[in-house]
Amino acid sequence: MQTQSFKKDERLSSEKIIERLFADGNRFTVFPIGVVWLFASLDSSSPVQVLISVSRRKFKRAVDRNLLKRRMREAYRRNKQPFIESLAKGGRQCALGLIYNGSELADFNEIEEKIILVLQRLQKEYEKDTG
Q1: At 28, phi and psi to the nearest 5?
Q2: Quick one: fold of 8-130?
Q3: Which of 36, 2, 32, 11 is nearest to 100 (CA)?
Q4: Strand, helix or coil at 9?
Q5: I need a labelling partner for 62 at 20 to 30 A (CA). Which of 7, 70, 100, 103 fits?
Q6: How many CB atoms lie within 10 A of CB 59?
């Protein structure tokens, strides 16, 4: 099994790709996480680049926003492998935005459950797109 990590080239930071993601990307929600994704060629060797965001309007304190982002990153890092392997097999790349839409702090287990559902749904979308 490959080591679980979340390296710099797995983070979505290109402004052009982020713009395209929000303009042309597909969307769905697994409450409290909103998902925007786009199968596109990225400037990276990684099959998936992820952007994680928490609204400043809903969480005024930076410590709360950072806590939620850390929890989302960790849940993604621990459960990303099957999705990444299916993308790598097909030679495709995906830009992915995970946006926390809830108005209360969720615990790690709840966030991890939702991230797993998100990744399973993305894998189905990918298989539908290629199949």
Answers
A1: -160, 170
A2: Ribosomal Protein S5; domain 2 (3.30.230)
A3: 32
A4: helix
A5: 7
A6: 19
Distance between CA atoms of residues 44 and 3, nearest Å: 19
Q: How many helices (H) and strands (E) does the chain have?
A: 4, 4
- The amino acid occupying position 89 is K
Each domain of the chain, given as residue ranges in start order, spans 8-130
Helices (H), the chain: 15-24, 62-79, 81-90, 108-130
Q: Tell whether omega for the bond before 32 is within 30 degrees of 0, i.e. cis.
A: yes
Amino acid making up residue 9: D
Query: What are the φ/ψ torsions at residue 80 (nearest 5 degrees)?
Result: -80, -20
User: How does pLDDT run across 33-54, given as a tens digit for each residue?
Assistant: 999 999 999 988 899 999 999 9
Give 1-18 pLDDT, tens digit per residue: 456 888 999 999 999 999
The DSSP secondary-structure symbol of 72 reads H
pTM > 0.90: yes
Structure tokens at 120: 């399973």
